[in-house]
Amino acid sequence: MDIRTQKTFEALFALEDIRETLRQTLPNITNPEEEHSIKEGVNRVRKILDDIENGTGTPEVRKIADSIDIRSREENYINIQPIQAAGRLTPEARKALIAYGDGYSTCDACRKPFRLDKITNPPVAPFHEQLASFVNMDVARVVPGARRGFQAVASTLVNKGDSVLVSALAHYTEFLAVEEAGGIVREIPLDENKIVTADATAEKIEAVRQETGKLPVLVMIDHFDYQYANEHDVKSIAKIAHQYDIPLLYNGAYTVGVMPVDGKDIGADFVAGSGHKSMASPAPSGVLATTEEWAPKVFRTTQMTGDLTKRKFGVKEVEMLGCTLMGSTLLGMMASFPAVKERVKNWEEELKKSNYLIDGLLAIEGSRVVSEYPRKHTLSKVDTTGNFDVIAQNHKRRGFFLSDELSSKGIVGEFAGATRVWKLNTYGLSWEKVRYVVDTFEDIANKYKLKVNKGTSDENKLQIRNSDKKGDYSNGYK
Ligand SMILES: *Cc1c(COP(=O)(O)O)cnc(C)c1O
Question: Would you say 285 and 332 are in contact if contact means Cβ atoms under 8 Å apart?
Answer without folding.
Answer: yes
